[in-house]
Amino acid sequence: MDELREANVRLNVLTSLVVLLIGFGTAPGQVTNPDLIAQAKKEGRVTWYTTVSIPESKQFMDMFEKQYPFIKVDLLRSGSGPLVNRIVSEYAAKNYAADVLHGMSSRGGFTVLKQRNIIGRYESPERTYYPAELKDKDGYWASTFQNTFVLAYNKRNVKPDDVPKTYEDLLKPMWKGRQIINDTDNFEWFDGLLKFWGRDKGLAYFRRLAQQDQIFQRGARGRIQLVAAGEAPLTIGYGPHAQSFVNQGAPIEWVPLEPVVVIVNSVSIAQRAPHPAAAKLFIDFLFSKPAQLKLRELSRIPSRSDVDADPPRLIKGFKKVVQDIENESMAESIKLFQQTFGLTPG
Q1: pLDDT above 60 for 8
Q2: How far is residue 332 CA from its own chain's centroid?
C-alpha cells in the first residue's frame, strides 16, 4: 500500500509539473507548445511585416512582449503593394528578413508571394477555432480579421423607404448623377461579385452601374466622412468604418447588400523565416482569443469563431461571398474594373 501511495504522489507531482510547463508564458485561451517557447526564447526576436496601422500594431507588440518578455518584435509597416514588392526583391537578393507576413491579400499579393515560394506552412493549433472559409487546407494562411463591403448612407438625406435594399436598387434613376461614392480601388468587391454572379451577368450589372455617374475617390474612411457631411447620400464602404461613424453619433447608417463581399486579412509564416520558432509563437498569439478580443476592441471583425464582432450584425445575418486570396486572375479583374468604370490605372 505504501508503494502504491508513493507512486500516486509521484504521478500527481509529474502531472502538476506538466500543467505548469504547458501554461508557462501563455495567455488564457491560447494553446502553445513549451518546446516552441524554449526555441523562440533562444531566437530572441521576430520580424513582423504588416499592413496594420502603426498605432494598432504597437498595441499587439506590447501585448506579445508583455507575455513573452524574452522576444523582441521588430515591426515593418507599409501598404500591401509596397510590402509585396519589398519581399519579392528581398528574396531575389537572398535577403531573408521577414518572419511573419500579415495583410498582403489584396490586389493578388498573396498569390504573387505563394507562386514565388515565399509563403511557408504552419498549422497553428489556434486554427481549430477558425472556420474553413477563413483559412486554407494546407496551413499556408488563415485570416486574423475580416472586412465587409456594405452600403453606407446619410440617414438625413435618404428617406427610410428609399434606402437601397439590393444591388439592383442602386440602378434606380434617383441614384443617377453623382449620388454614389465608390472607391477607385474596390477591386475585391468587384471581383467577388463577378465570381458570385458569373462573369457575363456581373459585367452586365457593373456596366449599368457605370451609367449612374458615380463619384470615385480613394480612401475608405474619407468616403464615409463625405457622406456624413452630406456631399453625397451613398457609398460602398467597409462595414466596421460605417459602424464607427454610427457609434460616434454621425448621421450614418448602413445596410448589407447581398451577397456581401468579405475580404480577409491573412497571416503566414515566411518560407525562410530567420526566427521560425518566434514566428510561429507570434502567429499563435495573433490567432489567440486575447488578440482577437483586442481586434474587436479596435472595431475590427475578428475571424475567430468564438469571438463575436461588436455589434454581431457586422458579420452575421446576411449572405456572404468570401474573397479568394489565391485568385490567379486578380490582375484581369483589376483591369476590368478600371475599364468598366472609366478609371485610369494607377
Answers
A1: no
A2: 22
